Amino acid sequence: MTLRLISVAVTIPLVAWATEQRDPCQPPPAFAQQFGLTYEKALREAYARNERGLSILLDFSTSPDLKVPWINCYASDVHKLLHTFGDTSFATVLRKEPLRVRRSVCNILREVAPTEEAKRYPQSFSADKS
User: Fold this and answer.
1) Mean pLDDT per segment of 10 residues, for the chain of length 130 residues?
2) Is residue 39 packed enough to be buried (19+ CB in 10 Å), middle (13-18) or exposed (0-12)?
3) CA 38, CA 109: separation in Å to the nearest integer?
4) CB atoms < 10 A from the CB of 86, how many?
5) Which backbone phi and psi does 66 adopt, to 5 degrees?
6) E strands along 5-128, which residues?
7) Hey, where are the domains in the chain?
8) Distance, C-alpha 123 to centroid of its chain
9) Alpha-carbon distance 43 to 56, whole Å?
10) Torsions phi, psi of 33, nearest 5?
11) What are the residues whose beta carbons fall under 8 Å from the beta carbon of 59, sequence distance 6 or more?
């Protein structure tokens, strides 16, 4: 009986803790209100090579809610989208963004991308310079 009570006393808090945990790649719920589109929808649009979706995703880079561990997932998505769009198309969209967004995105790319990628994607990696 005592063992059963101990297992129940330990199990209930663990179950409650597990249900409160979010997927680390799930963005904060406030993003949809802040940017007018959910992250998932913007990501889908961006992967469909829709400039509006990419633009909104790039805007996310300036959010104060962009913190570890979610920033790692975001950085990975932006890096994949650079490959999807290619240098010229990605840089064209990025250059339409305000300077603070361009700087933020370029800093994120420099953190996650290998050094040689800056040579493969020179327009995108230098978008914060102009």
Assistant:
1) 52 48 71 76 93 93 82 92 96 97 95 89 92
2) buried
3) 22
4) 15
5) -80, 95
6) none
7) 32-125
8) 21
9) 9
10) -70, -40
11) 35, 97, 101
